[in-house]
Amino acid sequence: xxxxxxxxxxxxxxxxxxxxxxxxxxxxxxxxxxxxxxxxxxxxxxxxxxxxxxxxxxxxxxxxxxxxxxxxxxxxxxxxxxxxxxxxxxxxxxxxxxxxxxxxxxxxxxxxxxxxxxxxxxxxxxxxxxxxxxxxxxxxxxxxxxxxxxxxxxxxxxxxxxxxxxxxxxxxxxxxxxxxxxxxxxxxxxxxxxxxxxxxxxxxxxxxxxxxxxxxxxxxxxxxxxxxxxxxxxxxxxxxxxxxxxxxxxxxxxxxxxxxxxxxxxxxxxxxxxxxxxxxxxxxxxxxxxxxxxxxxxxxxxxxxxxxxxxxxxxxxxxxxxxxxxxxxxxxxxxxxxxxxxxxxxxxxx
Length: 350
Ligand SMILES: Cc1ncc(COP(=O)(O)O)c(C=O)c1O
Hints:
This protein is an alpha/beta fold. It has helices spanning 23-31, 44-56, 70-81, 95-98, 103-106, 123-135, 162-175, 186-190, 199-205, 235-241, 250-259, 264-285, 305-314, 340-347, and strands spanning 11-12, 63-67, 86-91, 111-114, 144-151, 179-182, 208-212, 222-226, 289-290, 298-304, 315-316, 318-322, 327-333. It is built from 14 helices and 13 strands.
């Protein structure tokens, strides 16, 4: 794979959606390009993709809906679940709270942000929030907690453990709150070293979750999985109402069918994680500090001003947070498309 029109003197680690799509997807799209199929996802490719996803999730009673992007998926799912006086509980660092231009709020629902611990929402904090809500004699005047949103991996690249997800599930069961997991980068979390969380476990513990394609090899696409058929009644129409129903729906079906054939999704995610671990070790060996201990494809490194200026000359990365003391947190991302020689070239210069 060659990069075109980039600065050839720089290594690119800005995000995990800088390239087009995995060549296998491109090949399938080319092979099927002139076929005529029904629109709006009512085609065989979508049917097969959905069947393969449910099989991978060990979730025969579930249902899959293919959508285009993460923000769209979050706001559409969340607004489909909530009643009009309810809000969604999220970690303060949750993507819906900080990076979606108020997309959830735009649907009329408040994001109820709780402090994160290592980027995660803690079950005991959710329980306390809901208990405090009901203990308030005037709670009917307040936005009701209507569901719980988490992402896996989190914004900081950290991962929930099975026990942490079970604890969240227990609180959700106690207070009848649906649990929704944003898996925009799910592949990179599922293949990380040391994780005990599997796809079928996620399908059991969450009411709804999605498998991100956009950041894991697809041109675009997010596969929403409900672990019971009809969990989101008439969700097809809800997607349409949100302007999120792709007319040429097979574009998503072909991509997900390809990703869930021969384990491609997991293989390419593992490549990204391997590259991230190499990058992490290279920075650590040179004494760089990390803002989070991430086992996934996003690495958050703390740079002083001199390092920031110097690395900006040789690499493209994302400015994450100015710490206000002359240090800056930056994000280096690897992806399914990251070339090992680019990681080596970067590490040779840091
Ligand atoms: C965890 C998470 N969810 C959702 C999104 C939103 O995806 P999109 O940019 O496709 O709307 C992102 C994007 O970075 C993300 O990191």
